[in-house]
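Why does this matter for the project? Reviewers at the last site visit asked to see concrete outputs rather than summary tables. In response, this paragraph embeds two records directly. Each consists of the residue sequence and, immediately after it, the corresponding structure tokens. Nothing has been edited or filtered.
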Amino acid sequence: MTVTVNQTEATAPTGSTRVLAAGQASPEAAELNSGSCGLILHRQGQLNYGFGREGRAFSRDLVGYLNDKQGGTITTFFYDEVFGVRDRVHWLVHLKAPNDYSRLLDMVDDDEEFRDISLVDRLPEKGHGNWERMFVEGSMTERVLVPQHGLRYHHEGHGAEAEAGNYVPAARNQSAQDFDVQLNSANVGAIVFRSADVAYRYREEGRLFAFDWQESVNTEFAGQVTSLLFEQNFGRQDRIHWLIHLRDLQDYRLLQEFDESEHARQTVFGKQRIHESKGGGGWDDLFLPATINDIVMVPRQ
């Protein structure tokens, strides 16, 4: 589905004192973000409680070096999880295409400065070591997120050149919000990382519901919230993810108020989502029980 849109009336976020992930990279590198990239590698790790400060310093150094050397082709942002597990941290590695990951592998093999960041003794007063002691064994996990295809708007004169070489069309094309208004992983104050497992038999209906909810929120809260939809590749089948970008952390209440509103009941949650030929049903039949989960994370400076 493709729709041509004009610019929204909301204003772009400016003049804020918020901590933004964009501060972790040059302005040019930050142009590659959750809105414009072809895929995201989401990596998370659990720090041992005694190494929280050192683990974040390691992550800051690593992200800074990566963005200095690869930013714009591969841009990485670092976040803390809040309202979840203490000292769990997240990295969003933004790429245009899967083959770009080979650049990181080349750095691991051949870049001495990169290797020094991971090998230098960062714990001289705590028994010595580097990241391998800072993180809980087995806690480092990765998943590949690809912008959901097939649901997009057409923004006249925007983004085509910047998205050349993308694995799939960029996620920012999913929303009628103008690109200058949209929030993304670079300019955001907080991200709600929402995951859900769609029932196999309702995989199309589940994605359509996800898109309808998303664009209702984007229309209602342009300038404060931008939700973008991704599907997990090379992992669990039919697991989808919303990256719900919030201007500020307290804007999470907007999502709660929307979901409880009569407007949302009539236009999103109350609609029949499953055709009678499949037995009929609402949105709550589309997902496996208890699989809709939220992680809230904020950028580190």
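We now turn to the second protein, recorded in exactly the same manner.
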Amino acid sequence: MNASPDVGNPTEAERAPETLGRVIFNRIGTLERTRLQFKCLQMLSALPVWDQLVLRGAIAIHGVYLHGRCSKDLDFLAPATVKSRFVEILAEQGIALQEKEESRMPFFLMQGAIFKDVAVGVDVRQREASDVTWVNADFCGAGGAKIPVRVMPLSMMIAEKLRATSQRARCSDFYDFWLFVQKRPDLLPELQRLLCIGEVGGEALEFSADKTWVHFQQLRSSWHQDLIPLMPQVPSFETVETDLLRTLENLGAIPTHP
């Protein structure tokens, strides 16, 4: 499926809240966060538990596969013992960590070249090794720099994103799924297979086209404003709306009231 022609062409209502100063501030902040995330990954890759961590989530989707936007956190999967050891090693090395929220791992408070005290979140979700599917890949940074990583297969991560669209209304989830369809339509049959199985990565793949559609419609007014800090060009809401409905139909998951 080819991208529609109005990518990056927001409506007047979407464009109104933006000023040149805000755009520049967002772009600089995005570059700074991306640079510090790569620096953080380089540091983590030197730890003895690195080869037991599996990169997942938006940081993996875009740092390894699609390269469409920046991510707010570094997300991993690891067995419980590895997660505990990970925290111990960081403490032993005197790395200052601060609690972000009860349900997440601590985050690094890093000093940027432009912005000070940039928080780089590190979320390690417990998952038994037998339930984790991974492949070897390279995480790409600026200037062609690469870090070898274990990463979840793209089709499995997109299946998790599709599940997330049924659970919550978040612009980045829908953007990730949309970009996946644009760049890797060849993986749609595998996604359909996972939906039929109803499981991904050892967890139930619960999905409702009706809930997904309702959540997407709730994002109409905030679409451009929420996504512009994460990427240089934002596809219009109408573009994604048309493509999302077509994709759901191709997956045999047609909303009741589109």
